[in-house]
Amino acid sequence: MLVVMNASATREQIDAVAARIRQFGYEPHVIPGATRTAIGITGNRGPEGRDVLVMLPGVEDVVRVTAGYKLVSRETHTEASVFSIAGTRVGDGFTLIAGPCAVESESMTIESARFLRGLGVNLMRAGAFKPRTSPYAFQGLGDEGLRILAKVKQETGIGIVTEVLDVENAAAVEEVADVLQVGTRNMQNYALLRRLSRASKPVLLKRGMAATVEEWLLAAEYLMAGGNRQVILCERGVRTFADHTRNTLDLSIIPVVKHLSHLPVIIDPSHGTGRAEYVPAMSRAALAAGADGLIVEVHPRPREALSDGQQSLDFATFERMYATLKPLARVLDVELL
Amino acid sequence: MLVVMNASATREQIDAVAARIRQFGYEPHVIPGATRTAIGITGNRGPEGRDVLVMLPGVEDVVRVTAGYKLVSRETHTEASVFSIAGTRVGDGFTLIAGPCAVESESMTIESARFLRGLGVNLMRAGAFKPRTSPYAFQGLGDEGLRILAKVKQETGIGIVTEVLDVENAAAVEEVADVLQVGTRNMQNYALLRRLSRASKPVLLKRGMAATVEEWLLAAEYLMAGGNRQVILCERGVRTFADHTRNTLDLSIIPVVKHLSHLPVIIDPSHGTGRAEYVPAMSRAALAAGADGLIVEVHPRPREALSDGQQSLDFATFERMYATLKPLARVLDVELL
Amino acid sequence: MLVVMNASATREQIDAVAARIRQFGYEPHVIPGATRTAIGITGNRGPEGRDVLVMLPGVEDVVRVTAGYKLVSRETHTEASVFSIAGTRVGDGFTLIAGPCAVESESMTIESARFLRGLGVNLMRAGAFKPRTSPYAFQGLGDEGLRILAKVKQETGIGIVTEVLDVENAAAVEEVADVLQVGTRNMQNYALLRRLSRASKPVLLKRGMAATVEEWLLAAEYLMAGGNRQVILCERGVRTFADHTRNTLDLSIIPVVKHLSHLPVIIDPSHGTGRAEYVPAMSRAALAAGADGLIVEVHPRPREALSDGQQSLDFATFERMYATLKPLARVLDVELL
Amino acid sequence: MLVVMNASATREQIDAVAARIRQFGYEPHVIPGATRTAIGITGNRGPEGRDVLVMLPGVEDVVRVTAGYKLVSRETHTEASVFSIAGTRVGDGFTLIAGPCAVESESMTIESARFLRGLGVNLMRAGAFKPRTSPYAFQGLGDEGLRILAKVKQETGIGIVTEVLDVENAAAVEEVADVLQVGTRNMQNYALLRRLSRASKPVLLKRGMAATVEEWLLAAEYLMAGGNRQVILCERGVRTFADHTRNTLDLSIIPVVKHLSHLPVIIDPSHGTGRAEYVPAMSRAALAAGADGLIVEVHPRPREALSDGQQSLDFATFERMYATLKPLARVLDVELL
Q1: Where are the alpha helices (DSSP H) in C166-205?
Q2: How far apart are CA A6 and CA A9, in angstroms?
């Protein structure tokens, strides 16, 4: 940390700040400047004490230098993490996850799974529990949805990615799912993160609607600190003033996450744009930008979907998009998984 | 809803959209325009069908006309809601809630309560369970914190406003608290909202960091739809590009909420600005703008606070601020509660 | 400035950075830390060199410590600036500026001026040149508008606040206006700022739609550095995700500007909210928060206004609002000007 | 347009709104609904009258249905626009524009041009006039910069893309430049847009820092309405809460612009990210997403650059990036220009 003093700070104030720093067990380094004095701090292991120092007389600001995450950091774990899931991998190639927004019925779910397996897609997304902005909207089939997912998994061998909404249903979802999805609204639901940090399955952690990269990585740190080392980050668009897409898909997060962390990062172009017609372009962009994969909404008949139909691809469009990803991946020397 | 067709939409496409609207059991009203046709819809009771219609050939957009909330709406409940809590009221005057960020010890909590009671403040905030961005930060005293709050309540008679972080601890918090606080990160934690919709105590619902007013009111609708009619809305700043305050305090939400809903709305200038020095100005502004109250962080010794010290007022400053609110309230013909 | 090195930076890299700092003529102060080394810099007078240092091998980031503005800073000019304008003052009380969005005709302009003067308002806003998002919208009466303003000023004695859109018309506007308004879209139009830095009249500088406080103060610094010491800052709402108001009015900027600068800051609740019904609440809030004044849109017949009618108060509403500001100002011990 | 009435609007209010619509010369279409009445409007050619209608008693909102731009719209000009510039094309392939932020000297400019020409890049960016946030920062070489650009153009044959900051210097820039760049801060500088609408050279119009797609296209409409049909749109990142990049690069705007307009859209990954290390990933993403080209900062020695060094690629990195774009373009069936 670095304490920045006011231009008018007195010698006494500077000394008092230095003394307080020593009380914390840290070392102060006074740096007199042309217009103001700064005090470097060493010996601390985090931002503890910042809140106190910033209030001392003569202090203008206290600047943090080190982020608070450790286990997710690339600095302590230089190699990229790779996870084996349901016969495929995440973190070592470009992994496709696709499927309907929600499990609507057994027949449409199995239809989707067969279609995806036929193309070579090994992970299917589909929600049994749906977080909905309105209490009056379709909330998912719940336990019946889980039962359907278990059956579809058994019959087709496809891996299941599905959302856990709360601690209460975590065990039931964990039994069926190959990847436990945490939605954007729950990125900082710490009770849920703590529960999933003890889960046996990997967690796909969506970025919060307005989360900074540091907050997102700290949420991942909750999972890792609790013991779950298999965390997949997922960018799904953030909230900005822009109104031409449902959210603003922040693809620059891909190289940033690669720089800061060893965890894989995948892209959700369906929520990121909110319109099926923009999904193929953003999917190709995600691949070209170095993402570790996609999670895409696909529905056998989007116009009949109970939720998110507008952003779901139909089978034919998904197949066409998939065909354009293949040569792109080849040229980028990335394996399509 | 209103369907807006493309400029190049054909007669057949328009007819097909109208037919689909009738299948939903609604009535289409074709409105031919100079550059494009629009189709008004009547007979629907919500946005159901929007997702389908927007995907039909020739459709440019489907515009929603009515918001999805009902019980929170001013249209169905024209009078302002007033709640009696711990011997005071919310919704009928300007109600002060103040206290430390967290319960740090019995002595500092009782010290705070006595100070507040001495001033005439009847509701104290103080967190036993703290949601923290980093897993390594102080997370609150937990059950021990609740025990302290119960004791302080008994000894001083002050009402307790404290946060519920998860369903698991809801019952324990409910026993002690007079108002159950839902934090900004949990505004769309639907499992928690459903649980609190069955609680016997009022809920103070903070606005999500990037929530629109509609999303916020729909979260309140979750609470009301489940049976809890006592919901207090709380603006605590939203996330924007602006970096001069911790969050951007959106005071214009006050008249907007008053227009849309009958629920009381209070302001949190401590989180809204993140700096104690800006709290008095924003508190006065909240009162002048017509808010129903404040929730303010006050700490006996902010420089020793375990969390949020930078945004906490010390007793002397709070007292000075309180003294400036009194004549302001009088002039505005509002009772200070 | 403070250079933050990577955790893995080598001794050689640290030495190279220190050497480069010395080449700039500055002094490096190496601060070895537990997880990484930082290097304090003294002797510099601004952020020059930052761009270079941040690219050196082993450097993670370079943190700026001092803002780039000087003449606008409270640190170099501790007393609040007060300007005498058209027989009234700005910066020493709560100054009202009101009037129609645009000069639409001589009769409605003089009608407005007389109404305002009757109430004791000494400064009228009214645009002769209007910046409009669409090239097909009403663009103001131009030179004819200036002629009307000159006449109204002569007949009623009211001071004129009007927008300068470009260098070309600056001289003509300067002749008529008492305050030269720079709109939000032009906050970083440096050709215009340079021209107005040589003007004989005060400048009212609106905050850019997405400007940080530092960018805003640096725009003011352009004006002051060129010789114009009379700069009035004006907050008019910023662009965020929030959609319940036209812009998000950022009232917390008031105490922040007061902390950072000696310049007066006024509030535009009309553009800040975009709806006349929210203007009175936000006007009172601005006064209570310590602003130096308001600039409000008032129109004799808002429903017939050629622009911004939705956010303009009619005379009766303005008068009622004015009546509520008076006792508020008295209680706050501020003179209403 | 569609007028949405309050739930409690009376029959008289509805009739009055309909009557007012007829006064505008439009046709009202009353659509009674279950909870409220809406009134469709036909016969209007834009949003004129909206401001008035929204204020009538009983009116809740007036929804616009058609955007205000015409000449830039894909609806009136279905084929993509292609411009021939300096021996290359924009709008029909993937066009590279590269070069230093600023003309710093003749030698570094000619060095850059030769390097680019050697690679097959036909358009060079380089600013003679630089808009800078601080009045104390390097502002460009001005006329001397233009002289250098003219010489470099003559010697190397490279096309010049350079910024016009104001009307005053427009003629001088126009003489030298092949493309006139309008910066993000000037997107709504209407005096400048009007001047350039009469220029003989194409305009590259950067998106404003917080501009919606409609505002951006309306700024382009200013250029086209004045007679300049050669407008190239350029996304350079927008301002959001996210702090991991200098701006948030909004690549989803690419398919959106392609849907709404016939104008070409190129991407500036240098300003979009602010860090050279993220530029290659974002450049590949832009190509994969369907952009019409790039404008990239390249500098012979970024560490010595007078501005934007941190986001400039050195020659070797640019060459490597260029090498990765080639096979990508081939696979996407796009010509690299």
Answers
A1: 167-176, 190-196
A2: 5
Residue D266 tokens read as: 């190129």
**Closest by Cα among A228, A241, A232 to A267:** A232
Over 80: is that where the pLDDT of C121 sits? yes
Is A130:A300 a contact under the CB 8 Å cutoff? Answer: no
**Which tens digits make up the pLDDT trace of A259-292?**
999 999 999 999 999 999 999 999 999 999 999 9
The total number of residues shown for chain B amounts to: 337
| Binary contact (B29, D34; C-beta < 8 A) | no
C vs D: CB pairs below 8 A: 109
- Minimal CA separation from A137 to chain C, in Å: 22
Dihedral Cα B71, B75, B78, B81, nearest 10 deg = 30
Angle value at C-alpha C220, between C217 and C223, nearest 5 degrees = 160
Please tell me the distance in Å from C166's CA to the nearest CA on chain D. 6
How many beta-carbon contacts under 8 Å exist across A and C?
A: 67
- The confidence score (pLDDT) of residue A294 equals 98
| Encoded tokens for C138 | 């009403």
Task: Locate the chain B residue with the closest alpha carbon to A240.
Answer: B240
Distance from CA of C196 to the nearest CA of B (A): 27
**Is B63's CB within 8 Å of D65's CB?**
yes
Q: B-chain residues within 8 Å CB-CB of D66?
A: 35-36
B163: alpha, beta or left, given left = phi > 0 and alpha = psi -120 to 50? beta
Cβ-defined contact of C238 to B243 (cutoff 8 Å): no
DSSP string spanning C160-175?
EEEE---HHHHHHHHH
The reported pLDDT for the residue numbered D65 is: 63
For residue A278, what are the CA distances in angstroms to A248, A296, D93, D213? 12, 12, 20, 15
Chains with ≥3 Cβ pairs under 8 A against D? A, B, C
- Most D CBs within 10 Å, among B35, B63, B77, B262, to test the D interface: B35
The closest of A267, A174, A189 to A223, measured between CA atoms, is A189
Going along chain C from its start, the domains and CATH numbers come out as: 2-63 (3.30.70.1140), 83-331 (3.20.20.70)
Residues of chain C contacting residue D68, judged by C-beta atoms under 8 Å apart: 133-134, 136-137
Residue A14: its H or E element: helix A11-23
Reported ipTM: the value is 0.89
How far does the CA of residue B211 sit from the closest CA of chain D (Å)?
A: 14
Neighbours of A123 (CB within 10 A): 25
When pLDDT is averaged across residues D78-101 and rounded to a whole number, the result is 96
- Report residue A305's pLDDT band, with 50, 70 and 90 as the boundaries: confident
Closest CB to C256: pick one of B244, B250, B254. Answer: B244
Q: Which chains sit next to C, with 3 or more Cβ pairs under 8 A? A: A, B, D
Q: Are strands C37-42 and C2-5 parallel, antiparallel or unpaired?
A: antiparallel
Looking at residues C86-99, what average pLDDT do you find? 96
Q: How much is the mean pLDDT over chain A? A: 93
- How many Å apart are CA B21 and CA B26, to the nearest integer? 6
The Cα B62–Cα D26 span in angstroms is: 22
Which ranges of chain B have pLDDT less than 50? none
The distance between the two most distant Cα atoms of chain D, rounded to a whole number of Å, is: 77
Quick one: tokens of A10?
């007195």
The residues, ordered by sequence, that sit 6+ positions from D303 with a Cβ below 8 Å of its Cβ are: C52, C55, C56, D309
| Partners of chain A (3+ Cβ pairs below 8 A) | B, C, D
- To the nearest whole Å, the CA of A130 is away from the closest chain B CA by 10
pTM, rounded to two decimals = 0.90
Of A37, C182, B162, B32, give the one whose Cα is nearest residue D189.
Answer: C182
Confidence of residue A1 (pLDDT cuts 50, 70, 90): confident
